[in-house]
Amino acid sequence: MIKSKSKSKSKKKTKLDLKNGGILMEELIATFDGKTNPIRCFSSDEILKATDNFSESRIISSWGYFIWYTGVIEERPVSIKKWSSQNLSSFTEAYRDISVSSQMSGHRNALKLLGCCLEFDLPAIVCEYAEHGPLNRDGGISTGEALPWEVRLKIAKEIASSVSYLHTAFPETIIHRNINPTNIFVDEDWTAKLSDFWFCVAIPEGELYVQDDVKGVIGFVDPDYYWTMKVTEKVDIYSFGVVMLVLLSGRAAVFDGPGETPMSLNDHVGEVMEKGGFEEIVDREIWNVGDGGDLVKRRSQVEAFLRLALRCVRYKKEDPVSGMIEVAKELKFIEKFS
User: Fold this and answer.
1) Going by C-beta distance under 8 Å and a sequence separation of 6 or more, which residues neighbour residue 268?
2) What are the pLDDT digits (tens) for 77-106?
3) Spatial distance between the Cα atoms of 202 and 171, rounded to a whole number of angstroms
4) I need a labelling partner for 110 at 20 to 30 A (CA). Which of 91, 126, 188, 291 fits?
5) CA–CA distance from 156 to each of 96, 177, 231, 265, 309 (Å)?
6) Distances in Å between the alpha carbon of 288 and those of 48, 68, 149?
7) 270-298 pLDDT, tens per residue?
8) What are the Protein kinase domain coordinates in residue numbering (predicted)?
9) Around Cβ 43, how many Cβ atoms within 10 Å?
């Protein structure tokens, strides 16, 4: 009787492996003409052992669509993503996450894909481990400690580089559509890693946009995209601009305003700018320059950072940026201010 159950379980694993493998290949062909970096396949037993059967004590972060766990495979710490099939609108999104992650793994500012497991109803994704985990909604880390300005600026610069690569490195422009702090992991050296590529969509060669349903997180969705459903590079530029404002202010994209009424960070920033100032926007911790710090240099960097963020979100629609490459170059310049 025990053998019979074991065989039945093994057959189910094999069927899932074949079905999920076929869907993954279809996604790779659709997105990258089948071209991909090697993707290692882990067994379900390896995943369950690494996470103590998906124990709550192993959870790094939890969202409606998936849960990130920490684990150890072959004496190497890893991050493992388990999908929730109940909330996922399209199962192909889980496979797109793998296909795009495999292509992005060569970039130092993308969370490196180590492999996946196809023996569950939806694939589990195995990635490198990032010691500080993902940022929280207000741009901080789980310990609650305030990030120094240099780290915030570094994170913005590195994620801009990652998004630029996503937009330009492949035959078709790929748009992330879900850039927000919780999709940015940070390792022990404070190197930022972009993750969660499941909402990605490719703009066909020769086209300026692709039309699709609105995807993303409230507060980070480009208003033009919301009303027209046209996906362009501006969708990611806008979201990235909001991320910059989150890093600068230490506030979530939607936070409790006066009377605990939900308020958009974008609206808050706009109101402050209309008054002709900007100090109210900036997290007070940013002005802590420490011994021997240069407050004049810090202020110049912060002002330039805010101006760039406002251009990304098209504040007053004046002087918008041309693309993520310009944003990445500008952030490198700001970092080198002397």
Assistant:
1) 251, 255, 257, 281
2) 999 999 876 655 557 888 889 989 999 999
3) 9
4) 91
5) 25, 17, 22, 17, 10
6) 45, 33, 8
7) 999 998 888 899 999 999 887 567 888 99
8) 54-338
9) 13
